[in-house]
């Protein structure tokens, strides 16, 4: 798989599903059940014949299949950092907790896709 194909696959398999539901939220006034939407988006990102996979699971699979050109570009390390931030900010959702900093969580969700989309221009 060439870098462009890999990137398009990751944008579809991870980013599309990570960002889809959060795009519809009113981030200035999150409601209690929005936590469920965020949980599903981050921790149940893809549900299919292979089971339930989180954004972190999808990224790990994508990372392991990255072509050499991508691996040497710094994109993987950048997305690793963004995913670490996302998982840290989203951790309270795993135990039914509230989002303490909605703006930071929103930024973290979309930072993953922003970095991968930017890689198309590099």
Shape type: globular
* Total number of strands: 2
Mean pLDDT: 93
Number of helices: 6
Percentage of residues assigned to helices: 55-70%
Question: How would you sum up the major sheet?
Answer: 2 strands, antiparallel
Secondary structural class: mainly alpha
- SSE string: HHEEHHHH
State the low-pLDDT regions, or none.
Answer: none
| Overall radius of gyration | 14 Å
- Largest beta sheet: what is the strand line-up? 1-2
Distance between the termini: 18 Å
Fraction in beta strands: under 5%
Quaternary structure classification? single chain
Comma- or semicolon-separated keywords:
single chain, 122 residues, mainly alpha, two-stranded antiparallel ribbon, 6 helices, 66% helix, 5% strand
Descriptive account of the structure:
By secondary structure, the protein is mainly α. The chain is 66% helix and 5% strand. The protein has 6 helices and 2 strands, in the order ααββαααα. The protein has a two-stranded antiparallel ribbon. Strand 1 and strand 2 form a beta hairpin. The model has no long low-confidence stretch (mean pLDDT 93).
Q: Short description, anyone?
A:
With 122 residues, this protein is mainly alpha-helical. The chain contains 6 helices and 2 strands, in the order ααββαααα. Strand 1 and strand 2 form a beta hairpin.
